[in-house]
Design brief:
Part of the ABC transporter complex HmuTUV involved in hemin import. Responsible for energy coupling to the transport system. The protein is of the alpha/beta class. It contains nine helices and 13 strands. The protein has a six-stranded mixed β-sheet with strand order 7-8-9-4-10-11, with helices on both faces. The site of adenosine-5'-triphosphate has 11 residues, from strand 2 and helix 1.
């Protein structure tokens, strides 16, 4: 089942097109990894996939329906976002923040029910942040906040997840745990699109990789054919080594300093 499709999508801000010609589709159980240099348009594209920015032209389809015609709550039942930066303005606790992920399932003027509390508690448990549940979000480290935002997206229970650099603030342990969580979501049949500045993650996890260069998809396909040393060198403008590690089966990707 195709959960996300873009057709001739151009995206950007009022008066400024950042990218164009984007043709993507994502099926249930698929992981797509988006690689691209700073400013290439990853966050802007993601905001457009969520309907937070209108398409400049072309279309975004969620489960076959044009996002421009879907109500906000309906979009949130179909797709969840883990934002790159979330400003913690009001000091909600982590438990409250994660429970907010349930909002699209709770009718207006109603309060969360036992199923909502259970989903939030499960998400907190899966992310290993039970010890932070009572802590205000304004008093978290960057990595702790990132884990809380992933938990909120899990609690939302959408079949499609969009994760904007979900491991950028995480230590090695939490990076691996988040990648394992993404694998588990894939095994459940969810579709995941994530951006990262670590191409090794694309090799470790993605069914397909898209290289975003100046707002255009320069290449799209399996990591071993798309995230090659030559392609990454072109993309980032520096020397890159890609090496399959004997024994572990994983692939190391290193810039040449
Ligand atoms: N609110 C905005 N209005 C106008 N232009 C913007 C706005 N936010 C970002 N841009 C511009 O849009 C382009 C794409 O930015 P975007 O944040 O999508 O890049 P990115 O690939 O996510 O980068 P990074 O890897 O640094 O997070 C950049 O040139 C940026 O300066």
């Amino acid at each position: 089942m195709i959960l996300l499709e873009t057709r001739a999508l151009a995206f950007g801000y009022p008066g400024r097109t950042v990218g164009a010609g984007v043709e993507l589709s994502l099926a249930a159980g698929e992981v797509l990894c988006l690689l691209g240099p700073n400013g290439s348009g990853k966050t802007t594209l993601f905001k457009t996939l969520l309907g937070l920015l209108p398409a400049r032209s072309g279309r975004v389809l969620l489960h076959g329906d044009d996002i421009a015609r879907l109500a906000r709550d309906e979009i949130a039942r179909r797709v969840a976002l883990v934002p790159q930066h979330a400003t913690a303005g009001f000091p909600f606790t982590v438990a409250e923040l994660v429970l907010m992920g349930r909002a699209p399932h709770i009718g207006p003027f109603r309060t969360p029910g036992p199923a909502d509390h259970a989903a939030a508690a499960e998400a907190i448990g899966l992310m290993g942040i039970g010890h932070l549940a009572g802590r205000p979000c304004t008093r978290l480290s960057g990595g702790e906040r990132q884990l809380a935002l992933i938990a909120r997206a899990l609690a939302q229970g959408a079949p499609l997840l969009v994760l904007d650099e979900p491991t950028s603030s995480l230590d090695f342990g939490n990076q691996v745990r988040v990648l394992e969580r993404i694998r588990a979501l894939k095994a459940e049949g969810r579709a995941i699109i994530l951006s990262t500045h670590d191409p090794a993650q694309a090799h470790a996890l993605a069914d397909r990789v898209a290289l975003l260069d100046g707002g255009r998809i320069a290449a799209l396909g399996p990591p071993e054919t798309v995230a090659t040393a030559a392609a990454l060198e072109r993309l980032y403008g520096v020397g890159v080594t890609v090496e399959r590690l004997a024994g572990s089966g994983s692939t190391a990707v290193l810039p040449r300093y």
